[in-house]
Amino acid sequence: MGKGRHKPGREVTAFFDSDDDSLSSTSTVSEQSTVITVDRVRSRFDDLDGLLDNLYEKRSSTRENALSGLVSAFESNVLVGYVSNKYITLLNQYINSIKRGSALEAKKAARAIGLLALTIGAGVESQELMVESVPHLTQALKVGSDASKKSAVLECLAISTFIGATDAEATDKVMKIIWDFMHPKSGLNVSGANKLPPPVLVAAVSAWSFLLTVFDGWRISSNNWQESISFLTLLLDKDDRSVRIAAGEAIALIFETGRLDKFSKELTGSFVEGNNGNNIGGFGHVESLKGKILNRARDLSAEAGGKGTAKKDLNDQRDLFHDVVDFIEHGVSPETSIKICGEVLTLSTWAQVIQMNYLKRFLGVGFNKHMQENELLHDVFDFTPKGKQQLSVKEKRIFRSPNSALNKTRTQVLNKSRMLAQDRQHGHFAVTHEDA
């Protein structure tokens, strides 16, 4: 880059970590506050453009710092206005970082793609994001050994598919990618899982479970998951507690689907109805499977802590498997209440609990902000934040009209982006077709 070109650094990252009003703030409609809001939008958009520009730099550390700034910005704000006509540019640069960058750069880029998907929300754009990114994310799982990169890639696959997949088949294909990664064709000896560090195995099991939450029992593939119960049950014996917890959640979710026959080779075909309408052989197989899982779940729900055991982790395991036992044995669903933005949200199924926990872990410090302002999350959890109001006619005219000051600012920023893109194509920012 030329001298004097803006290179956002630590101060920009800190700026986006602040907890002030978001870009879309409409708390007042006075002329003065409108000017302030527009100035804030212009300033932040310029900062984001500077970070985006730095993704074209040759120095890897510059790109890594830019990705850190963008990740921080998208965590702490719901930047719908910024990505509305720029998501393809962002996505292409993120993909380039995954393809050509270091493990650290690829890790940050994968997280950035997931945050971009959450910002875009469901629709044609998120579908395009998924289609474009999945092949490169899949390849990233196959190369290198960095555990944190692979975990980030698995999270990105799960988030982008959860939002962008338009049918069961598309979701199923990505679940199969994740499954084959953690459980390559190896019978039931979990040899594939033994090669993965526990954090990566947890990330894979959790990503697979997260995507399974979108299915009802009848839409689940009858062919892909016939070894899943056996595999997950064996993971309950792993030394790492976080692996046991992830496997326990997945097993509970499978039971909640009501179609165990689709997840166990032993049960396949056992639910064929006879002439008298009764299931042939199914009941005995199910009871045997339930008994095996219940015995192990009871042990884990009452496990004693040894010397050096982290108390919180142990309590998390006990609580989880106590709920698993109650659900499998008595049909009692878990019920969890979480206070968000002054409102209490109650979750009463394993699918809801897994979705909430996954998105909360992924968003981290930005969870409350996104739950307050992200329309996608409102739809997923049927949640309306306290104090959320419809815009008045005057507010809509000020903030949503094509002629409003705010939208004029956005147009100016988008025009600037287009000119920069042309410069990159014809000048020293150029990226060859082969590089892309």
Automatic annotation (TrEMBL):
Family of this protein: Belongs to the IFRD family.
All residue ranges annotated as the Interferon-related developmental regulator C-terminal domain in the record: 374-421
Domain Interferon-related developmental regulator N-terminal: 25-329
Gene3D superfamilies, per the entry: Leucine-rich Repeat Variant (1.25.10.10)
Organism: Acorus gramineus (Dwarf sweet flag)
Pfam short name (any one): IFRD_C
Origin: domain of life: Eukaryota
Source organism phylogeny: Eukaryota, Viridiplantae, Streptophyta, Embryophyta, Tracheophyta
Region: Disordered, residue numbers: 1-26
Protein's name according to its UniProt entry: Interferon-related developmental regulator 1
